[in-house]
Amino acid sequence: MAAHRHNSEAMASDVHKKIKAAFKAFDYEANNTVDVREIGTIVFSLGCFPSQADLHDFIAQVEEDHTGFIHLEKFLPVMTNVLLEKRFPPIPEDKLLQAFEVLDKEKKGYLEQEELTKYMMQEGEVFTQEEMDEMLTALTDQKDNVIYYKDVIDELIIDNDI
Predict the structure, then answer these.
(1) Got the DSSP string for 143-161?
(2) What pLDDT, in 10s, does the model give residues 58-87?
(3) How far apart are CA 156 and CA 89, in angstroms?
(4) N or C end of the chain: which has fewer CB within 10 A?
């Protein structure tokens, strides 16, 4: 039993390190606080993909009295539970590929920024222009200025052995 407990403590410790690293990347003031608008990006960077409603509920749990800020000490235990329970699992690789292939009507193997923007700002859970700009910056191949979706999927598929 002691070995099992030690193992789960080590696992929690690794999870804490990952969460702290992701959080600190957006802690611009270095005061263990991030803007509430960064939480979605932080959660996604940790391999969790909640719906907008789930993300909203998550933020309600961790936000400091509607100040627009989230403190690490409040975020860490909630996010740790989310990761250990695998609460917001990633979409399977084959489903991601299918989704991109549906958008790539000419079977080119890539999407133009305009194509992705059109779908992401009109269909389903609509993105804002600011969210879209951030996403395009992250996804677009700098040399060719297109989105090679197989490369994007390879980056999104992360090790689930947290």
Answers:
(1) TT-EE-HHHHHHHH-----
(2) 999 999 888 999 999 999 999 999 999 989
(3) 12
(4) N
